Amino acid sequence: MVGGGMFLLVGLVLLIHSCYATIRYRQYTMLLEEQMDGLPLDIVLECLFGLVVSCWGTVLYAGQFQPIKISSHLAKKTFDTLNHRPSLITFAHRGPQFAKTATN
């Protein structure tokens, strides 16, 4: 976890620095009244390296992945616990109000 957080921090610092270098390069080309055709190679490489390092840090920081197969998770449960969904049970619904208007 500590290594992933450190990779993430270093990657974000590299990305912020590449943004700052891009702004400085744009100001430099505007000062010299030149056309900005593209970024220098060092800024592009720094941005790509920062992106790769921060993605790698995010993967390491996330921790242990859960298995993608649901059968390993559901193998321990019985059918009764699978069918029980308390979030779908609604006791305060509009059924009694409709029953009153239907009888009138």
Automatic annotation (TrEMBL):
Belongs to the membrane magnesium transporter (TC 1.A.67) family. The chain crosses the membrane at residues 41-62. GO terms for molecular function: inorganic cation transmembrane transporter activity. This is Uncharacterized protein. Its main location: endoplasmic reticulum. The keyword Glycoprotein does not apply. It comes from the Eukaryota. Component of the ER membrane protein complex (EMC). The keyword Transcription does not apply. Residues 1-21 form the signal peptide. GO terms for cellular component: early endosome; EMC complex; Golgi apparatus; plasma membrane. It is a multi-pass membrane protein. It is found in: Endoplasmic reticulum membrane. Keywords: Endoplasmic reticulum, Membrane, Signal, Transmembrane, Transmembrane helix. Pfam families: MMgT.
